[in-house]
Specification:
Blueprint (H helix, E strand, L loop, with lengths): L6 H10 L1 E3 L3 E3 L18 E8 L9 H5 L4 E12 L3 E10 L5 E11 L3 E7 L3
Antiparallel strand pairs: 1-2, 3-4, 3-7, 4-5, 5-6
């Protein structure tokens, strides 16, 4: 699957100065204000391509039905769990009153058997 040169890679490159090789690597980070807590680095950040079901309730010709394919999806986030059954991404988190990582949100649970390819994005 060719992803380099895709609209997503172009957007990532334009917004985050990401250089592409076998792994996506962040080469320049944005400056934060002094009152913004540091990113806690508890988990690695990933961009994951995965396959999902695709359904359609409309009437279709049999040829069109037979040519249907699963959807290819892309999700990003901190990989908080990975085992034989699941990959769990968390895209958002907040800080508690002590300035430490508090709650996580915007989670995606992907069956491991559905993962097509994943890229670790360094520097987050």
């Amino acid at each position: 699957m060719a992803i380099f040169g895709s609209p997503l890679c172009t957007w990532l490159d334009n917004n985050f100065k990401i250089e592409y090789n076998k792994k996506m690597k962040k080469v320049k980070s944005k400056k934060f204000k002094n009152d913004v807590p540091e990113i806690p680095f508890l988990y690695d950040f990933f961009l994951i391509y995965w396959e999902d079901i695709q359904s359609d309730s409309s009437w279709k010709e049999m040829d069109d039905i037979q040519n249907m394919k699963p959807a290819t999806c892309v999700s990003t986030g901190w990989l908080v769990k990975k085992d034989k059954k699941v990959h769990i991404l968390m895209s958002d988190y907040n800080y508690n009153a002590k300035g430490e990582m508090g709650d996580g949100g915007n989670t995606t649970v992907i069956p491991t058997k559905n993962v097509i390819k994943k890229f670790r994005i360094d520097g987050l």
